[in-house]
Amino acid sequence: xxxxxxxxxxxxxxxxxxxxxxxxxxxxxxxxxxxxxxxxxxxxxxxxxxxxxxxxxxxxxxxxxxxxxxxxxxxxxxxxxxxxxxxxxxxxxxxxxxxxxxxxxxxxxxxxxxxxxxxxxxxxxxxxxxxxxxxxxxxxxxxxxxxxxxxxxxxxxxxxxxxxxxxxxxxxxxxxxxxxxxxxxxxxxxxxxxxxxxxxxxxxxxxxxxxxxxxxxxxx
Length: 220
Description:
Layout: E1 3-10, H1 32-50, E2 54-60, H2 64-77, E3 81-83, H3 100-103, H4 125-147, E4 151-157, H5 159-169, E5 188-194, E6 197-204
Parallel strand pairs: 1-4, 2-3, 2-4
Antiparallel strand pairs: 1-5, 5-6
């Protein structure tokens, strides 16, 4: 059996003073704190490599915040940064809105809330899992081709697609309270495989000490 690990890395904090649910909107850069998180993550993976990890690839969502988070790690490990559209942020009909809690009081948007299990306001959770896991399996296979058994690769993505992928991996229901996601800024959700079979899920927060200063908007 060929063992491999795919690390799903969430992007760092975004400069978003108006607290917009930015979704797939272009132009949202990392904040100063977000850049510090990206550098910290790079240090984390360099330490892992120096301890023997065979990290052979890195790819990121096309969105700017994911690309900026990935770049320091790619440079530190001497890897070419690839773009992976299948791990982009989820579609969301609230995209572009600010003050979401206030918006939810507006009866005109209540029809969007009809089915939180799907969810009715955006891309179905199952569709997100399907596209992310397709990407995960492709990059897992490529990692093994490049590095052999034990190879690792990194995919830089977004909170919701990462979280529902983890829920599916752990055979848990996909609908959930966004405030209870264990997927903090610049966190790492690691999927361990024997060949194509998922055998373990691990979670790490290399930037845990920086989170107290972060503006962590649910759903972002």
